[in-house]
Design a protein that fits this description.
alpha/beta, 11-stranded mixed beta sheet, 7 helices, 34% helix
Length: 265
């Protein structure tokens, strides 16, 4: 079902005209996991732009499975990723790491000191049993910072083609909505674009988080249609009940998708 807007100028009223890069205290670098695919370079580009926008460094991580083949591949993968980052953010401080082991746990461990953790999405022809699917599931299960999944091909992904598309906050009428809205509002402010608040039709207007006049979604297909016109979709923590549907949106999302971390204990 196509998502429809509740009457009212929700989009134009949500443009935030604040400074793009306030250099405030940050929790650490933007960490991006890189593998040997060319598609992941879109995630590297997105992460480099985000790090520059937030005034933090970029940490490129290639997790190897061990052995001579993996050891020889790592430097090439990281060199290519570093060149991509330099092309879009030449003044950015970039560091690299080549830990060994399983990619998911290794990246999740780095999230404790990261500002953002960025991974690449899946291409349309990729095998659904691909390693990156297991990596994503592992990262989402234990990451301590926002996780951003960037599809391989996305309008506005490169610094040379900045996007004026809005940021969409997917609200679900839960306690986590406040965190989702805060992350989405921060992203919209830094990108100087509109912020759209998307609420389920079953949510009463009195309980909606944020300003009035949100857009309405009925199911994840409706959310996906909203994302087709967005540059970033921010969603809440992916729990067991919604894991299958949400992972499908994350793996094949039409725009970058940010998953808010759980509230600290």
């Amino acid at each position: 079902m196509v998502a429809r807007a509740v009457p009212g100028p929700a989009v134009t009223a949500s443009v935030v005209p604040s400074p793009l890069v306030p250099r405030t205290r940050s929790q650490g670098p933007v960490v991006v996991g890189v593998d040997g695919s060319l598609g992941v370079l879109t995630a590297v580009s997105w992460a480099a732009c985000e790090a520059a926008r937030r005034g933090v460094g970029l940490h490129l991580v290639h997790v190897g499975a061990g052995g001579e083949q993996g050891a020889g591949r790592g430097p090439t993968v990281l060199r290519r990723a570093r060149h991509t980052a330099a092309a879009v953010a030449p003044d950015l401080s970039v560091s690299v790491a080549r830990p060994e082991g399983a990619a998911g746990p290794a990246l999740a461990a780095l999230s404790a000191r990261a500002d953002r953790l960025v991974v690449g999405g899946r291409r349309p022809g990729d095998d659904p049993r691909a390693t990156r699917d297991h990596t994503l599931a592992s990262v989402l299960a234990s990451a301590r910072c926002p996780v951003v999944v960037v599809p391989p091909r996305r309008t506005g992904a490169w610094a040379s083609t900045p996007s004026a598309r809005p940021v969409v906050a997917m609200l679900r009428g839960t306690a986590g909505d406040a965190r989702v809205l805060a992350l989405a509002a921060d992203a919209a402010r830094r990108h100087r674009v509109a912020l759209l608040r998307a609420v389920p039709r079953t949510l009463r207007p009195a309980t909606a988080v944020g300003a009035p006049d949100p857009v309405v979604w009925d199911d994840l297909a409706g959310v996906r249609r909203l994302a087709l016109g967005a540059q970033l979709l921010v969603v809440g923590e992916v729990g067991p009940r919604s894991a299958d549907e949400m992972h499908g949106l994350l793996r094949r999302g039409p725009c970058a998708v940010m998953v808010a971390p759980p509230d600290p204990a």
